[in-house]
């Protein structure tokens, strides 16, 4: 099916569920998808944050309080969204957390918790949303991967393992459902200006300098950059794109 260029990057009629959608990269995705015509459902654990974010976006923005690691509650959540708003046709697996510890100091419990939040929670939510997409013969699933999916970084072994697992999940799932109208892709953000980045870099100008030196565009990205990439991957413009890991990093994964 051909789409006019003006419509190829639109998401009209889509219902997008975005985990971790109240701030940072998730909110960047929500803003861009909402602007492209989708109804967006922001999912998070902090009611005040996601309610405020949805209010900022206005009509067509919704919110749900949920913990993605409360696995047994997810089928009911998906059914509630379907009944309130409509079948979920876009899923952005974006929720997650990070901590910095050397491998020898990372406990089994800490490592397991990282995998729970990223890998198991994303799989569980995906498997609950996927039947509706397959029935409709239409859907797009996104995973927020990381620079650590592509290059080695010290002090984040659990996070690196979780984000690298996303790449395998995208490859396997994309081939499994491609013939049934569902596309599966991932975005690997570089260093994006955010409260999390500020927390990591404020007071450490040497680290900021090292990051910028290895980023050919010599600047940090913005949440909007991730949002616009997400719109593209979920839009008709990418109707022949599945199974890809798209770096949005100012060239950092290729730089020296």
From TrEMBL:
One Pfam family of this chain: adh_short_C2
SUPFAM superfamilies recorded: NAD(P)-binding Rossmann-fold domains
GO function term, MF aspect, one: oxidoreductase activity, acting on the CH-OH group of donors, NAD or NADP as acceptor
Taxonomic superkingdom: Bacteria
UniProt keywords, alphabetically: Oxidoreductase
InterPro entries hit by this protein: KR_dom, NAD(P)-bd_dom_sf, SDR_fam
Keyword Acyltransferase part of the UniProt annotation: no
Positions of the Ketoreductase domain: 14-194
Stated family: Belongs to the short-chain dehydrogenases/reductases (SDR) family.
Name recorded for this polypeptide: 3-oxoacyl-ACP reductase
């Amino acid at each position: 099916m051909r789409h006019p260029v003006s419509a190829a990057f639109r998401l009209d009629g889509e219902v997008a569920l975005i985990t971790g959608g109240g701030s940072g990269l998730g909110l960047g995705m929500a803003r861009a998808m909402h602007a492209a015509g989708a109804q967006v459902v922001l999912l998070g654990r902090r009611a005040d944050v996601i309610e405020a974010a949805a209010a900022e976006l206005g009509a067509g923005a919704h919110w749900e309080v949920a913990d993605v690691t409360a696995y047994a509650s997810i089928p009911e959540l998906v059914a509630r969204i379907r009944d309130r708003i409509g079948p979920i046709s876009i899923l952005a697996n974006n929720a997650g957390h990070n901590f910095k510890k050397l491998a020898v100091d990372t406990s089994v419990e800490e490592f397991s918790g990282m995998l729970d939040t990223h890998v198991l929670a994303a799989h569980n939510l995906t498997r609950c949303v996927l039947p509706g997409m397959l029935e409709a013969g239409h859907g797009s699933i996104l995973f927020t991967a990381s620079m650590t999916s592509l290059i080695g970084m010290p002090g984040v072994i659990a996070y690196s393992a979780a984000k690298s697992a996303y790449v395998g999940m995208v490859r396997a799932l994309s081939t499994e459902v491609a013939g049934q109208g569902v596309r599966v892709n991932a975005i690997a953000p570089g260093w994006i200006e955010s409260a999390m980045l500020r927390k990591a870099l404020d007071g450490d100008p040497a680290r900021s300098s090292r990051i910028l030196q290895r980023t050919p565009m010599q600047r940090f990205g913005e949440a909007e950059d991730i949002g616009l990439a997400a719109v593209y991957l979920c839009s008709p413009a990418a109707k022949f794109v599945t199974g890809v890991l798209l770096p949005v990093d100012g060239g950092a994964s290729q730089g020296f």
